[in-house]
Amino acid sequence: QEVGDGTNFVIILAGALLEQAEALIRMGLTPNEIAEGYEKALEKALEILPNLVCQTVVDVQDSDVITKAIKAAIMSKQYGNESFLTPLITEACVAILPDKKTTFNVDNVRVSKILGGSLYQSQVVQGMVFKRQVEGDITRAEKAKIAVYTCPIDSVQTETKGTVLIQSSKELIDFSRGEENMLEKEIAAIAATGVKVIVSGGKIGDLCLHYLNKYGIMGVRLQSKFDLRRLCKSINATALPRLTPPSPEEMGYADNIYTDEFGDTAVVIFRQDEKESRIATIIVRGATDNFLDDIERAIDDGINNFKVLSRDGRLVPGAGATEVELARQINQFADKCPGLDQYAIQKFAQALETF
């Protein structure tokens, strides 16, 4: 959970240790002695490991070094595609790491899976990609201020119930016009602040849509609260709970907002061309859902490896080389131990040989 990868390693090692423990119990050792031996062997292993480091990643901003470091993890999941996938993942990760001081958050690299095409049509977008259509007629905006609302964009109903007595047809027309004017005022006030795009967490009413089109505002509806939150982070906006004109601090900004189609899937893309973008999206293309899921898992592992590299850049040789060397040295260590736990330490070395 901490590293986000290495599940097979953990399961194989745990299984091998248990298997060896059974043999020890048949020999007559107590579970306590076995556990003690295993713990001693573990301490020894952690002592040996730093001496086996073959290479260290110093600069996490350097794409070439990172690509080399992450490649092994991608190869274990997607052998043959690693030379294409690894640079994609590196580009996405390095782009959202603004400086050394910030911790890298795995959640900031999103994966958007779109059926159709081939894997080699995948790409990285700075910003967010949503598999949705826009609501109104306006399909693109550039260098736009964005207002984000968590509420539906619709006429607000009054809090108290009231009865309206209408005497003539003129009053009826005025009554509905009053509501329309109020709505128009609200949308006009939002447009006056310079907002070109409105993102809503709820539905956008028909009448509102009419006024959004009238004032040339693009409407996007997102159904997921989490997506809204991520978008706010990506464009630096504050989500507003009611339909009020946003203050300059509460507005977000994106260089390019446009709709695009991948295959037969329509998407809305919020793109940041500056370096300030805090979120990157990898658009993955592929022929089947299963294939897309596999690629997504590989990408997740790559991103998690990047996170670990940004904390500690030390690398050891792969392909089981490290495990065999550990087994060799732990075996020698077991021969020097006087107590009964030497048998358990030996078995720990044998468990490592499983790899």
UniProtKB/TrEMBL annotation:
It is found in: Cytoplasm. SUPFAM superfamilies: GroEL apical domain-like, GroEL equatorial domain-like, GroEL-intermediate domain like. The keyword Repeat does not apply. It holds the Pfam family Cpn60_TCP1. The keyword Cytoplasm applies. One of its GO terms (molecular function) is ATP hydrolysis activity. Keywords: ATP-binding, Chaperone, Cytoplasm, Nucleotide-binding. GO terms for cellular component: cytoplasm. Gene3D superfamilies: GroEL, GroEL-like equatorial domain, TCP-1-like chaperonin intermediate domain. InterPro entries: Chap_CCT_theta, Chaperone_TCP-1, Cpn60/GroEL/TCP-1, GroEL-like_apical_dom_sf, GROEL-like_equatorial_sf, TCP-1-like_intermed_sf. Belongs to the TCP-1 chaperonin family. Molecular chaperone; assists the folding of proteins upon ATP hydrolysis. Known to play a role, in vitro, in the folding of actin and tubulin. Required for correct subcellular localization of pgl-1. Heterooligomeric complex. This is T-complex protein 1 subunit theta. It comes from Daphnia magna.
